[in-house]
Amino acid sequence: MHTSRFQITVIALLAAGMGYLGSSQTAVGYPAGPVVSYGTNPVVSYGGTVSSGASVSALTAPSDQALIITDLILTASNTGSQCRGAQRLSLVSSSGTVAVFSVGMGWEYGGGTSYSSSDYEQLLVANMQSGIRIAAGDTLTLNSTDRWSASCGDAIDVDYLLAGYYAQP
Predict the structure, then answer these.
(1) In sequence order, what DSSP letters do the residues of 58-82 get, joined into one string?
(2) Backbone angles phi, psi at 15, to 5 degrees
(3) Which residue of 21, 42, 109, 132 could cross-link 166, Cys pair, CB 3.0 to 4.6 Å?
(4) Could you give the dihedral angle defined by the CA atoms of residues 33, 34, 37 and 40, in that order, rounded to the nearest 10 degrees?
(5) Residue 16: CA atoms inside 13 Å, Cβ hemisphere, count?
(6) Per residue in 120-137, pLDDT tens?
(7) Closest Cα to residue 106, out of 97, 93, 115?
(8) What domains does the chain contain, in order, with CATH numbers?
(9) pTM
């Protein structure tokens, strides 16, 4: 069997073409959501207490970064042993109210045929995949209002923990 120069050239070109097509290219990925920034540790968290009827400026996003709140923990607290009631906590930015949560304190008693409970959660844990976005340079304010309370002496406080990360605006 005799191989011509034409056949060798065609085989060489096919081999080169297949090698080019089979070679890996540089991978390029585009994030589906906000782009995390600030290096290796963009995570931020802040906690505190807000009293009933009070407002607290909890977090301010940097002027060049948005803030994404992904986790929130709220607990209702009061020192009264028979305190029961509920608090509404509104998360407010310059664009308006971005979220509203309620927590409360139940007082259960039983004796004879009577039994009562407030049906409010004293602990609220929210893990949000998409999160609550606070625009660059904006401040997140927490406003607490008393929904109702009984036998508390002092108002019901809301202890909070906010966690999230900085992202490109």
Answers:
(1) EEE--TT-EEEEEEEEEEEE-S-TT
(2) -65, -45
(3) 42
(4) -40
(5) 6
(6) 557 788 888 889 999 999
(7) 115
(8) 34-167 (2.60.120.340)
(9) 0.68
Instruction: Say if residues 98 and 44 touch (Cβ distance below 8 Å).
Output: no
User: In the block, which residue shows the tokens 């406003």?
Assistant: 143
Sequence-distant (≥ 6) Cβ neighbours of residue 143 within 8 angstroms: 50, 54, 55, 89, 90, 92
Per residue in 24-58, pLDDT (tens digit) is 666 555 455 555 555 555 888 899 999 888 999 98
Rg, the chain, Cα only: 29
Strands (DSSP E) contained in 9-138 are: 43-50, 55-60, 66-77, 84-93, 96-105, 109-111, 114-116, 123-134
Work out whether the CA dihedral 30, 35, 36, 37 comes out positive or negative.
Answer: positive
Q: How far apart are CA 156 and CA 145, in angstroms?
A: 9
Evaluate whether 84 touches 164 at the Cβ level (below 8 Å). no
Q: How is residue 144 written in tokens?
A: 């607490």
